Records
---
Amino acid sequence: DQQVKQNSPSLSVQEGRISILNCDYTNSMFDYFLWYKKYPAEGPTFLISISSIKDKNEDGRFTVFLNKSAKHLSLHIVPSQPGDSAVYFCAAKKSGSEKLVFGKGTKLTVNP
Amino acid sequence: KAGVTQTPRYLIKTRGQQVTLSCSPISGHRSVSWYQQTPGQGLQFLFEYFSETQRNKGNFPGRFSGRQFSNSRSEMNVSTLELGDSALYLCASTGQGLNYGYTFGSGTRLTVV
């Protein structure tokens, strides 16, 4: 049972345009969500997070939107840069637990 | 401040052997979690330690075990290695309260032959 799903295995965008990465979850007990960027053979790098008490969090070029009723979150990267090319993972956790449940990831390619 | 340090970076072992991986968390972080990443299963939670106690455990066989020391450093051990244990093993440390952050190390790439 996959509780966190990233349905797009890959995404390709042009440099300067917006990248939108999507994530769906099934467990309504999740109340904290994180996005990570990952290169092969390296650990995930934290990008941005959001608590379920918010519906939006912004940090520079990265914005995460949370729609609790739809159990959906998205990561917007504007403007996209070639250095953003990597695999992006969505993760979720419940309060009181440090166990992260990850999606399978979306490979983003930003073309110059 | 220094990040999460995992040693060794790469390891090759033979089936049936055992292996111990090490993780030093960010200074002041008391929670350490371990994950396994494989191409087929993605990132899977192994277990979490806080103040030398295992607080949470994932769905892995008993061959996978861990411990945490009083200085918050953690080790994980895999006994009777199988080919399917080949993976990237990641450690993450977590702070508390305003110092909250969930930071991963670079991982240990284990290859079982």
---
Amino acid sequence: SQTIHQWPATLVQPVGSPLSLECTVEGTSNPNLYWYRQAAGRGLQLLFYSVGIGQISSEVPQNLSASRPQDRQFILSSKKLLLSDSGFYLCAWRSPPLYEQYFGPGTRLTVT
Amino acid sequence: DQQVKQNSPSLSVQEGRISILNCDYTNSMFDYFLWYKKYPAEGPTFLISISSIKDKNEDGRFTVFLNKSAKHLSLHIVPSQPGDSAVYFCAASGSNDYKLSFGAGTTVTVRA
């Protein structure tokens, strides 16, 4: 069966510090991978998605970047965090041609 | 531009009664629709989906209805249970689309 891992579960970082969130998927090959953010009391905002190694599509211009160094690894990064980067970050995977996306447990990021 | 809309931010229902969640979409190219359930501080979990070639799909206590002409779908939960208290997201996708378009969510509270 497929499993998705995200870490860390919670993170408190000062403004201006770097960020690296990691997501890995097990039990599937060539998945589509996604990063979402949910701000407090808001819906799900798609940040990045990837259909293959090294292929990244950005949905919104912002202070974040994503990379996919391996087939089942997706990394969300920032060089300098802003207060507005606080939120709940979710990684998801999908196995084409199926439509369903499956989400990880999330990372709660608080920028102070 | 919000292509998937959940116009009711919240719903309160008594335990044992039916919960009806509504969702409208504007993009006529959408042909697959999904519902997700989300508890606080957790990733969304996939509940049920429906293809545009159908008008109903049932899975246990959950039934999704699709009205293509009205661009409307609904999720029925019968009977509602305390564990159903969560945020429910409606999502949609079109053929060859890598992404899901999510609604803003409806918070369901099941009262004892």
